[in-house]
């Protein structure tokens, strides 16, 4: 495969995935909270990056086609995912309505143990249909435009985007720590997340029928 074509495939994978990653979802919100608290940031970033690598590779190797040919899998995934997103929305809404002191304390607390943190981010990643849709279906489909020889270069670019994004957010969010020291910032973030999760959950639920 010519070097120029390989580079184009890498750049395409990087650009498409980066555009998807910039949306404020459950993954990003969780990483922001841990980054501001300086708790297990590397662990969370590594799990996100590794998960993306597995899911993107699955999409490129045909997972998207398998799901497309088995409608019941899509329905089951949608129902489980919608339930998860509704639950996450409820938790975000609850945090948004907490007192100022409780909200302010989240900037320095984060989740406690590494085990709890790992379980939480793993669930947020693997039970979130939005993440699965983007990594498996959208990126898996986009990779086909690069042809058989260029798909894995596309995958390399996409995984590189995930690596850059999650590390940058996790370790760079500290620069915004003064803003997040204000309770109203957390209220806006949590409120926006709750609304977004409700919308996504409803869309996913409706897609099951």
Question: What do these coordinates show?
Answer:
The protein is mainly alpha-helical and 209 residues long. It has one domain. 86% of the residues lie in helices and 0% in strands. The protein has 10 helices and no strands. The longest helix is centred in the N-terminal third of the chain and has 29 residues, at 41-69. The chain starts with a helix and ends with a helix.
Q: In short, what is this structure?
A:
The protein has 209 residues and is mainly α. It contains ten helices and no strands. Helix 4 packs antiparallel against helix 10.
Structural descriptors:
209 residues; mainly alpha; globular
| Structural class determined from secondary elements | mainly alpha
Helix count from the secondary structure assignment: 10
Shape: globular
**Low-pLDDT segments:** 101-105
Percent of residues in helical segments? over 70%
Tally the beta strands: 0
For the terminal residues, how far apart are their CA atoms? 43 Å
Secondary-structure element sequence?
HHHHHHHHHH
Mean model confidence by pLDDT: 79
Largest sheet: none
Q: What Rg, in angstroms, do the CA atoms define?
A: 18 Å
Strand content: under 5%
Q: How many domains would you count in the coordinates?
A: 1
């Amino acid at each position: 495969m010519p070097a120029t074509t390989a580079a184009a495939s890498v750049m395409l994978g990087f650009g498409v995935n980066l555009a998807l990653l910039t949306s404020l979802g459950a993954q990003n919100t969780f990483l922001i909270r841990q980054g501001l608290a300086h708790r297990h940031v590397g662990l969370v970033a590594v799990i996100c990056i590794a998960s993306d690598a597995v899911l993107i590779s699955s999409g490129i190797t045909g997972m998207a086609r398998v799901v497309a040919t088995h409608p019941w899998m899509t329905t089951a995934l949608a129902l489980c995912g919608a339930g998860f997103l509704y639950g996450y929305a409820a938790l975000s809404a609850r945090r948004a309505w907490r007192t100022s002191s409780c909200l302010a304390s989240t900037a320095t607390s984060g989740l406690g143990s590494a085990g709890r943190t790992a379980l939480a981010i793993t669930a947020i990643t693997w039970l979130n249909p939005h993440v699965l849709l983007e990594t498996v279906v959208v990126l898996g489909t986009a990779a086909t435009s690069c042809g058989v020889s260029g798909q894995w270069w596309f995958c390399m670019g996409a995984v590189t985007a995930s690596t850059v994004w999650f590390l940058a957010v996790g370790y760079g969010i500290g620069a915004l720590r003064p803003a997040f020291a204000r309770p109203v910032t957390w209220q806006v973030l949590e409120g926006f997340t709750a609304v977004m999760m409700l919308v996504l959950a409803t869309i996913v639920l409706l897609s099951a029928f």
